[in-house]
């Protein structure tokens, strides 16, 4: 098939999944066209059947906000027409599903099948906000198929946006050949870690990630175990975290590593991943950690329990119960046997339930269903 994919190209789970799906579909013989304002950060130049189409916006003194969504709609229609796309798969509802809807209005009476994948914050934070509510709902209803990365997110979308459209649950995936258990001694040394346990947190340091809980937890756990903490990523909460670490006198045992594209080199060094988000629709980083044999410790809300099974692949505690999270982290770090059983179980689950091949096949089923379901495909 000829498939157009639109996603946010910057670092983030939805962009990672869209890009890896593109790689995987291309490897299975499909022709892939990425359409976005810049090249997705993990998009490799390794496959001739993947092309990138840059959306150009114009600036004009009248435009306080350049209308990217409109330029994207025009690019989508252009690419669909010129490359005879069968499917347009958009990741993140806002504004991508809306642009796809407009692209079809441009192409009418022809119609290209639109598959919208919901990733989380497009519904739980942004889409349900009054400003975008109506347009998010409309764009979802107008998609030919809608998928969500967890059952939690599918239910949440139906409930908060009053959506009637059926939503397929297709979980995220990980390449367990890339995310592996072997930790590199050199990397450990390069980061300046001595012996002893290591905790890791990876995120975009937004409020929803509760990164200050990571620092508070670490202060207690460090006291009893001498552990080190790796913080990967950047965002608005990074400086407040630094300040808090200084106040608690633990800044010397924390490595702020900033944004890293190749997290698979760092993840296996850790003994546990801390993910105390208020809500994660899925928690892709948790799955990546599991593939590396790193148990996950987090709050039990949202879609995280669909990925991490409490007591098997890690520990999930009630939202806000930091004391319990500290206890669980200590239990894990102080019990080598328990940790290694969990590590093996977590990796096995990542391979068996969330493999790239298995999940790509689920998306292919949706594409086929949409492409065969009526007047779809631009010829
Ligand atoms: O977590 C973020 O703020 C980024 C966001 C994104 O769109 O990249 O992540 C969402 O999509 C990921 C990929 O499906 C999920 O793994 C994350 O759980 C989800 N984030 C939230 O629900 C907060």
How is this structure best described in words?
The structure is a single chain. Helix 1 (13-27) crosses helix 13 (356-372), helix 3 packs across helix 5 (130-142) and helix 8 crosses helix 11 (322-333). 42% of the residues lie in helices and 16% in strands. It has 379 residues and is an alpha/beta fold. Helix 9 (238-248) links the parallel strand 9 and strand 10 (254-258). A seven-stranded parallel beta sheet has the order 3-2-1-4-5-6-7, sandwiched between helices. Strands 10-9-8-11-12-13 form a six-stranded parallel beta sheet, sandwiched between helices. The chain has 13 helices and 13 strands. The chain has two domains: 2-173 and 355-371, 3-Layer(aba) Sandwich (Rossmann fold); 185-353, Glycogen Phosphorylase B (Rossmann fold). Residues 375-379 have low confidence and may be disordered. The protein starts with a strand and ends in a 7-residue tail after the last helix. The site of ligand GMT has 21 residues, from helix 1 and helix 4.
What is the share of helical residues?
40-55%
CATH fold naming of the largest domain: Rossmann fold
Question: What CATH architecture label of the largest domain applies?
Answer: 3-Layer(aba) Sandwich
Structural class: alpha/beta
- Which regions are unreliable across 5 or more consecutive residues at pLDDT < 50? 375-379
| Annotation field: number of helices | 13
On the 0-100 scale, what is the average pLDDT?
94
Total strand segments: 13
Distance between the termini: 13 Å
Strand adjacency order, main sheet: 3-2-1-4-5-6-7
Radius of gyration: 21 Å
Report the bound ligands by name, code or SMILES: ligand GMT
């Amino acid at each position: 098939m000829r498939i157009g994919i639109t996603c946010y190209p910057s670092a983030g789970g939805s962009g990672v999944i869209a890009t890896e799906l593109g790689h995987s579909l291309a490897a299975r013989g499909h022709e892939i066209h990425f359409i976005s304002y810049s090249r997705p950060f993990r998009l490799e130049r390794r496959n001739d059947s993947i092309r990138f189409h840059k959306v150009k916006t114009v600036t004009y003194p009248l435009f306080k906000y350049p209308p990217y969504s409109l330029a994207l709609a025009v690019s989508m229609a252009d690419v669909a027409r010129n490359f005879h796309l069968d499917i347009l798969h958009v990741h993140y509802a806002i504004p991508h599903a809306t642009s796809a809807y407009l692209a079809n209005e441009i192409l009418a009476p022809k119609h290209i099948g639109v598959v919208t994948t919901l990733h989380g914050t497009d519904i739980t934070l942004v889409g349900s906000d009054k400003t975008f509510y109506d347009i998010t709902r409309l764009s979802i209803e107008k998609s030919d198929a809608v998928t969500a990365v967890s059952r939690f997110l599918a239910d949440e979308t139906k409930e908060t946006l009053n959506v009637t459209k059926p939503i397929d649950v297709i979980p995220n995936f990980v390449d367990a050949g890339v995310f592996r258990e072997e930790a590199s001694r050199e990397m450990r040394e390069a980061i300046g870690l001595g012996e002893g346990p290591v905790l890791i947190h990876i995120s975009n340091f937004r409020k929803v990630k509760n990164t200050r809980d990571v620092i508070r937890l670490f202060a207690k756990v460090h006291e009893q175990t001498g552990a080190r903490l790796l913080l990967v990523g950047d965002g608005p909460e990074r400086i407040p975290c630094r300040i808090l670490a200084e106040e608690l006198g633990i800044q010397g045992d924390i490595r702020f590593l900033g944004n890293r594209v190749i997290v698979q080199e760092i993840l296996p060094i850790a003994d546990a991943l801390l993910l105390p988000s208020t809500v994660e629709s899925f928690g892709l980083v948790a799955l990546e950690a599991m593939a590396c044999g790193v148990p996950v410790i987090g709050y039990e809300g949202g879609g995280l329990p669909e990925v991490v099974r409490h007591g098997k692949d890690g520990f999930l505690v009630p939202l806000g119960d930091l004391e319990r999270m500290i206890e669980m982290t200590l239990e894990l770090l102080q019990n080598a046997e328990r940790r290694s059983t969990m590590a093996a179980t977590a990796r096995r689950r990542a391979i068996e339930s969330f493999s790239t091949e298995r999940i790509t096949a689920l998306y292919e089923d949706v594409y086929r269903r949409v492409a065969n379901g009526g007047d779809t495909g631009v010829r």
